[in-house]
Amino acid sequence: MNYDLCLHIDSKEAAILRLVLANASNYIKGLPEEHFQLVIVANGPAVTQFTTSNKEFCDLAAPLQEKGLRILLCANALAANDINESDLWPGCHVVPAGLVEIVRLQREGFAYIKP
User: Fold this and answer.
1) Using CA atoms, how far apart are residues 2 and 21, in angstroms rounded to an integer?
2) Any residues with CB less than 8 A from the CB of 34 and at least 6 apart, and which?
3) For residues 8 and 92, what is the distance between their CA atoms, to the nearest angstrom?
4) What gap in Å lies between CA 4 and CA 2, rounded to an integer?
5) Separation of alpha carbons 92 and 90, rounded Å
6) What torsion do the CA atoms of 43, 51, 69, 93 make, to the nearest 10 degrees?
7) pLDDT level of residue 24 (50, 70, 90 thresholds)
8) Between 14-30 and 55-66, two packed helices, what is the crossing angle to 10 degrees?
9) What is the model's pLDDT at position 114?
10) pTM above 0.85, yes or no
């Protein structure tokens, strides 16, 4: 069975990011013996939360990233919000377009969840 999962966030609300990170943590804990890929794709205003100035959430995400969580941020949204790649959390990756990345992941068999 394929357990690859894409979590999508497009809100700048801290409570939504907290929920997404909690879901990622619970997913990892719930599948201790399974091999899977876990990705967060952020676009729109959500990308503003993935900057180094947001240390609290960076600290919550870091151990999840160590366990394989990939965080993908939309280049279009970063540009619209005047955010440089150097301002991002360590380990975040920039993709050209967040929605296109979500479709690509779904075509690869990822399940998709948006809180």
Assistant:
1) 21
2) 3
3) 14
4) 6
5) 6
6) 70
7) very high
8) 20
9) 87
10) yes
